[in-house]
Amino acid sequence: MKKVIALVSLSAAIAVSSNASAVTVTLACGAVGQELQMCKEGAARWSKKTGNEVKIFESPNLTNDRLGLYQQQLAAKSSDIDVYQLDVVWPGLLAQHFVDLKGKVPAAEVNAHFKGILDANTVNGKLVALPWFTDAGLLYYRTDLLQKYGYKSAPKTWAELATMAKKIQTGEQKTNKSFTGYVWQGKNYEGLTCDALEWVVSFGGGTIVDSTGKVTINNPQAAKALDTAASWIKSISPAGVTTYDEEAARGIFQAGNAAFMRNWPYAWALGQGDDSKVKGKIGVAPLPSGGSRNAATLGGWQLGVSMYSKNQAAAIELVRYLAGPEEQKIRAIEGAYNPTIQSLYKDKDILAKNPFFGSLYSVFTSAVARPSGPTKSKYNQVSQAFSTAVSDVLNGKSKGQAAVAKLSTDLARIKGRGW
Amino acid sequence: MTVNPTAPARPVRTRGIEAARARQAIWLLLPTLIAIALVAGYPLYRTIYFSLFEANLTTPDQRTFVGLGNFWFTTEDGVALGFLQDPKWWGAVKNTLLFTVVSVFLETVFGMIIALVVNSTFKGRGLLRTAMLVPWAIPTVVSAQMWSYMYNDSFGLIGRGLLGGQALLANTDSAIWALIAVDVWKTTSFMALLILAGLQSLPSDMYEAADMDGASKWTQFWRLTLPLLRPALLVALVFRSLDALRVFDIMSVMLGNVNAAATSMTGYARQALIDNSLLGFGSAVSVAIFLIIMVIVVLYVTAFRVKFD
């Protein structure tokens, strides 16, 4: 009898403990095509390893829409989502809702990532999220067309790009009416902020708001940068470029209808796909300089654990796995997602699949951060004011100088008593 | 003397029945009133409450009372913080009013023409009446996306085909006319349907009499149809105007959130509340939109003596 009781209690104990270890963690990641697919596969690999289940929460595609949804979930202290995928400009905005990963993840594991990206994820000494992949603006070009029109290398300056794009466009339009020189992200949204920051920095016009929180945008170099971009419209870029986002630009480039494109690294793997008309004809280079330097805006996504998660321990494990070297390598090879772990840039398998990773290493490491750090919770307003001012210049509503002067006043209004 | 006792008794009894009916009506209405209080009254109260505070969407518990500061406030340094001091808000108001006036006017005129055509007898009238409602039946988000493809400058039917590569939606000044076109396309059929219902209640013998008296069709329209149609027309106008004032989806889909905030009052409120997580400021904007719409309804109802019965 005693034996039976012991056996029953033992099996009960086993049942309880296995229940406690196998939990379901909900992970919020991007909702379209390849990104969602890779997110699901990564989660499945972790599931298989640990026996825990992962539920994927499909988020809206546009980053601003995603933020709105996350904010509502977090404000309600909802435990529905355990792991959030965060844009690099969000930590300042959402820090208080996330678990401090410092101390919960071994220091050596944390420090394997780029320092600059770790800094962007640290708010008041708290490590809000672990870097998952990094991003920086790149110039894509058609190698076959550059050769056809007698150019040996990608343009080094914006002026060179304009000349080359014009020549190729004029030539190609004889046979293809839809052909255009240069496509980029001109729609009034966060993407335009990224593109325009690159122009301004490359002309030596500063970073809108400097690291001390001072508004610096009202300067002649910034004005010149915006006027230069405006001059591209209808000459080397279609009028509709001011309604394009990343995917619209990629659609045109990948259909073989553009000579140059500004986009993020993800466009590489898709452009080499079997359905791509420009497969094998794509070159990648740093974005041109405006006289000061080559500038690329820092993008990228991180993984953070919600404070309101009921399975924090398992959620942290999932984040450690997904942001770890093994998973980052798979994502780099299959999707051209840039690793945030430095050592992976020397990995032969990764370089074989993405030859530009090695040569553009400095672009990724010296990418320019948007002023989300100094402007904290008001970053979105700053970004909207900036992209609206840029949009006005692109649409011919105002000139660069007037636009940056007005923007400076708008930013003072947004700053109010302080960031 | 024999009549007197019964005479006052009757009104008393009817009053008793009326009072009982009124009591009964209140009890029957009570669940509805409670439901309205919960789903409309409480959110409205919270919105008005939050409009007096400075609060963040993600941390609504940490709020500071600022009175009417969200509406109008100038700091010591002369920086204007209230939304009524924001030129972008006034731009949104101007664009919304322009959108409302032009689109409702066009919808009424076109709706009237369509209703008059469909009201006359001809072969295939039933089919036409059904076909007419197709634009109205498509969800706005879908039709807005469809139109933004048509406006695209590199492959769109309108942007490329008709205008030869112009990007109408790029500029908020030209975009507002493109948006009006979409709204007119979508809602004219609804307007036509409302007017058609009004037309069908008009007696046909009246027109026969007018024919006998030798009144022309034109005179019949201006002297008979239009005056008799007035009540139905005004109710339709009020509904459409309110809808147009709170328009949101077309702008959001076709222009993106940042430009939507410059072209519609609701877009401006959404941007403040969601994108910028300014709970107090956004609530103040919502309160202002509520007041603007309420004032316009009151003006409509009193100026045209609209009867909702």
**Helix content, binned percent of chain B:** over 70%
Structural class of chain A: alpha+beta
Q: List segments of chain B where confidence is low: pLDDT < 50 over at least 5 consecutive residues.
A: 5-9
What fraction of the residues of chain B are assigned to beta strands by DSSP? under 5%
Tally of strands of chain B: 2
What average pLDDT do the residues of chain A reach?
90
> What is the H/E string of chain B?
HEEHHHHHHHHHHH
Largest sheet descriptor of chain A: 4 strands, mixed
For this structure, the quaternary state is heterodimer
**What is the number of strand segments of chain A?**
11
Rg of chain A (C-alpha, Å)? 24 Å
Q: Class by helix and strand content of chain B?
A: mainly alpha
Query: Helix count of chain B, per DSSP?
Result: 12
- Largest β sheet strand count, sense and barrel closure of chain B: 2 strands, antiparallel
Q: So what's the overall shape of chain B?
A: globular
Across the major sheet of chain A, the strand order is 8-9-7-10
Distance between the termini of chain B: 44 Å
By DSSP (H or I, 4+ residues per run), the number of helices of chain A equals: 20
Helix share bin of chain A: 40-55%
Family (chain A): Belongs to the bacterial solute-binding protein 1 family.
Protein name (chain A): ABC transporter substrate-binding protein
InterPro entries (chain A): Bact_solute-bd_prot1, SBP
Signal peptide (chain A): 1-22
Draw up the topology in text.
The complex is a heterodimer of chains A (419) and B (309).
Chain A: H1 2-21, E1 24-29, H2 33-50, E2 53-58, H3 63-75, E3 83-87, H4 91-94, H5 107-111, H6 115-120, E4 122-123, E5 126-127, E6 130-136, E7 138-142, H7 143-148, H8 158-173, E8 180-183, H9 190-202, H10 220-232, H11 246-254, E9 258-263, H12 266-271, E10 282-285, E11 298-305, H13 312-322, H14 325-335, H15 348-353, H16 356-359, H17 361-365, H18 372-375, H19 379-394, H20 400-415
Parallel strand pairs in A: 1-2, 8-9
Antiparallel strand pairs in A: 3-11, 4-5, 6-11, 7-9, 7-10
Chain B: H1 6-50, E1 53-56, E2 59-65, H2 87-119, H3 125-132, H4 134-137, H5 140-150, H6 157-162, H7 172-200, H8 204-212, H9 217-245, H10 249-263, H11 265-275, H12 279-304
Antiparallel strand pairs in B: 1-2
Helix pairs in contact in B: 1-12, 2-7, 2-9, 5-10, 7-9, 7-10, 9-12, 10-11, 11-12
